[in-house]
Amino acid sequence: MSYEVTATRRRPQHFEDLVGQEFVAETLKNSIASGQIAHAYLFSGPRGCGKTSSARILAKALNCEKGPTPSPCGICTHCTEITRGSSLDVIEIDGASNTSVNDVRQIKDEVMFPPNSARYKIYIIDEVHMLSTSAFNALLKTIEEPPPYVVFIFATTELQKVPATIKSRCQQFSFRLVPVEKVKNLLADAVKELGIQADDEALYWIARESTGSIRDAYTLFDQVAAFSDGHITYDKIRDKLGLVGVDRLNELFEKCAAGRPDDALSVLDTYLQSGISIEQLVSNSADYIRSLLLIKNGITKEALLGNAAERYSAGVLKTWNTVQVERALSLFLQLYRDIRYSLSPRYELELAFSRLCWLSQYVSPAEVKTAIDSAHALLGGAPQHAQMQAAQPEQIDTESPETHAAASSADDAVPADEDSEPPAQPQQEAAARQTHSAAVPGTASGLPHFSALDEMTGSGESPENGETPKSGESPAESPQPENPHPFPDGGALPPEQTAAAAVTQDEPSGHVQEAPSAAAGTWVNTDIPPEGEYAPDEEAPADDPDDSFTGDDGDSSGAAETESIPVIDDPSDDMQQHTQDIQQTTDYTTADGRTVTVAQLRGTVIAQLSVDDAMTASALMQTLPWNIQDDAVSTQIETPYQKLRLEQHVNDITKVLAKICGRPMNFSVTLKEAAPAGQPSEIPLQVKILCSVFKGNITGGKK
User: Fold this and answer.
1) Are 581 and 625 in contact (CB under 8 A)?
2) For 217-226, 296-305, 314-323, 416-425, which range has the lowest pLDDT when averaged over its residues?
């Protein structure tokens, strides 16, 4: 008897023999048992997974002398003829060789004749996607309404190339790749059938190389069995097929993990000199790194790794973390794509292993961010960088004890001269700059600023109410504000604080303006002294307006001392009047008995709306002072666009007002009348500052 390959010898003959295709087998068996036999079937799936075998089993089940039956006998005349491929009523056609419309016309002529001796005339067309468009169109009417004794079975590996008109006329069955474990069990049965020996490691390697195709697994098995002399081992496969193997890869990657590129490149050269191809080495290295990644994530299943987890180097697993192993795998995946177009594939391979030698120093962007966040938490109160201090000596941070110590030593080193001018006091200059940053909206201590701002606001000199520490008193001993700045590195205050944080010029320097807290529904103090300013001494005279202070409860006991924000001296009467209008202190009593000012109510509404509707909150910021009368809020605005915006969202505004006040509220807005011709319009302070800094003028039409 002639030799028969394992794939043909072990071809499934019954539905129960279809490994990995249980859904297809059960569906076909139930259809035959119930007599619901379709006139056309379409089998699709990857190569070597049982499509043609299933078609032949279905043909035997339909034409068996005991059938139609889900379990054909396999010994009757029709079953044996179908198995040998000599049945006159079961016609197998290669779609790749019979692609023309004339071949399909021949089929149309043949279906008019009934089967010779069997029950059904069955056409099995393999690789049906290779038929031409004309051939498909010629076949449509035939497979839609064939004679009752004709059954079409189509098989294809590329379902997307089959026209939708063909798919809609067929019952479709999708075949799947076979799992590695099942392929390995089939190979073990083939080993027993041949009477030879095989190691599990070798069978696992063959099963993994087959990528789920049983025919590929049997073909590779026959090749390995031919040179194994009755005992299939992984070492024989590695030596004969030019593989690297886990042991060799352990040696190579241990050199890389130890950071020894000279040894790693020497070992690499030895492997290449032994005849291992570069593509094979890259592929084996990628598989090795993938297995390392699986082990690092706690996966030790031998079917996935291809080898036992204990065979992989413990030193490599300990040296590289998960992120570094992922980086190594991406390097080799990219290497496989690059060597195809490289000047020298060997150079690319050596470069990749040289990079692996430095992989232990690789830090991912996520780790860098974590380190920066940790450093920021530890150094949040530290001064600015030394380079910035050296480049801008006038911005030296006077809050740190080191700066005070350096200043004290410098004063001691320079002898006093009665005729010379007194030296500049850096503490007062720093306090003045921070006073300016607190007075000008949108600035914060520690941030760079323009010197022209000092000229504009007069902050180049020591502020009237800004006190510096006494001689010998460190900044740490000075009283700290109860409510620290919400942004320790600087930045503008949130909308709910800025809405009521401004102070008019005619108010006392110690007055504290409160703003609503939108989150908790309480009123919090937002008059926070800038860093570098200190509370006055207890011995300061009470009648000194610059040193006066007021507690939160209105008395001067000093229990909750808070230093007021300095006021910018602006001779503009219009600006003073506008500031006084914004900071009106008309009281309003809510439903729960709380008394708040109109400015506080306005700031709370803006803060609430800024969370969900920033555009409407921005429009509310542009409104003029609010008036409240009989639970109705009225205001004015200067631009028609902002007025239209507020009118469109008046329901949202009234909902927020009702929530804050505890009762239904009304809101109305009108357009402010334009200033008479020739009368200068009001210019905000910020615009004046920008014009002074950049030496510019205001252009454009008048209001």
Assistant:
1) yes
2) 416-425
Taking a C-beta distance cutoff of 8 angstroms, is the pair 599, 500 a contact?
A: yes
Q: Look up residue 482 and give its amino acid.
A: E
Report the pLDDT value the prediction gives residue 470, as an integer from 0 to 100.
46
Overall average pLDDT of the 525-538 stretch: 42
For residue 349, pLDDT beyond 60: yes
Q: Pick the residue with more confidence: 205 or 437?
A: 205
Q: Please give the C-alpha separations between residue 155 and each of 16, 92, 166, 173, 547, in angstroms, as whole numbers.
A: 20, 11, 12, 10, 95
Q: 326: burial class by Cβ within 10 Å (0-12, 13-18, 19+)?
A: middle
**3-state secondary structure at position 542:** coil
Write the Ramachandran bin of 298: left for phi over 0, alpha for psi from -120 to 50, otherwise beta: left
CB atoms within 10 A of CB 389: 15
Mean pLDDT of 668-677: 76
Contact criterion met (CB below 8 Å) for 625 and 632: no
Residue 274, number of CB atoms within 10 A of its CB:
11
The Cα–Cα gap between 479 and 178 comes to 75
Spatial distance between the Cα atoms of 214 and 48, rounded to a whole number of angstroms: 6
Of 152-161, 257-266, 406-415, 478-487, least confident by mean pLDDT is 406-415
Q: Is residue 576's pLDDT more than 70?
A: no
Q: Residue type at 10?
A: R
- Name the packing angle between helices 200-209 and 234-241 (round to 10°): 50
pLDDT of residue 679: 52
Look up residue 695 and give its DSSP letter. Answer: T
Name 360's Cβ contacts closer than 8 Å, sequence gap at least 6. 257, 259, 319, 320, 324
Phi, psi (rounded to 5 degrees) for 300: -125, 15
